[in-house]
Amino acid sequence: MNRNYLRKRMKNGTIQMVMFALLAGVLFHCKHPEGRTKAHHAEQMEFSAEDSIQAIWQVRNFLKWYAQNYKKASSFQLVDQSGNYTVKMDQCMAFLDFLKSSEMVSDTFLESWKEYFIEWQQRYQINPQDEGPPEGFDHDLVLLSQEPELIFQAIDSLELSIIELQENRSLVRIRGNWNYLIALSRENELWKMDAISIPSEE
After folding, report:
1. How far apart are the first and last CA of the chain?
2. Where does residue 116 rank: exposed (0-12), middle (13-18), buried (19+ CB within 10 A)?
3. Which of 3, 73, 92, 124 is deepest in the core (most CB within 10 A)?
4. What gap in Å lies between CA 89 and CA 46, rounded to an integer?
5. At what angle do helices 14-24 and 107-126 cross, to 10 degrees?
6. Is the pLDDT of residue 128 over 80?
7. Whole-number mean pLDDT of the chain?
8. What is residue 201's predicted lDDT score, i.e. its pLDDT?
9. At what angle do helices 107-126 and 89-100 cross, to 10 degrees?
């Protein structure tokens, strides 16, 4: 898979701004106020360990759901390519409703993609395109890849780790052949995806 291609796509359009703004919201420092007891610290560590397992499990579970339902997810015609390209907002909303049916993506995730679709519709109006792959839609939008099937084949072997964690926010990193940052928030005891992005080169 061409990582440079993926990062180029991240830099083109609002996806970089939206997704990294969301991720910035969960890049926090967990500091213990003075005066807390060792017992309290131990409780926090136990709580965090359990949450870490749940957050990582949910990320892997979402990837499995997406792999199992990819045929349906990729069937939505998000761009009308007859004449000058236009974003088909009804199809985009249907696509988001389908992702929502997984019960593993948050309203924040869905609203961010709605903004993405709206901006690309405006871009097509300002700079018409009538040939070639539709810019902004020439890759899988969820995994930001032109070859999501390769990622699906490696789901069980992906290396996932927690970077940051607090009571209702977490940030999971996937390392290896595919590098991702995934921000999650907890709703009613269930972790949900807020944003999926590709980190910059370190």
Report:
1. 18
2. buried
3. 92
4. 45
5. 160
6. yes
7. 83
8. 64
9. 160
Entry pTM: 0.79
Among 184, 182, 187, which Cα is nearest to 199's? 182
CA atoms of 75 and 61, how far apart (whole Å): 22
CB atoms inside a 10 Å sphere around CB 60: 15
Residue with tokens 């990193």: 173
The pair of three-digit structure tokens given for residue 6, joined into one six-digit string: 């993926």
State yes or no: pLDDT of 20 exceeds 70: no
Using only C-alpha atoms, what is the Rg of the chain?
18
Question: Are 154 and 69 within 8 A, CB to CB?
Answer: no
Torsion of CA 48, 54, 57, 62, to 10 degrees: -120
- Cα dihedral value 116, 169, 155, 94, nearest 10: -30
Residue 117 host element (H or E): helix 107-126
pLDDT in tens, 21-60: 444 444 443 333 444 444 444 444 445 788 889 999 999 9
Which position has the token pair 């871009």? Answer: 123
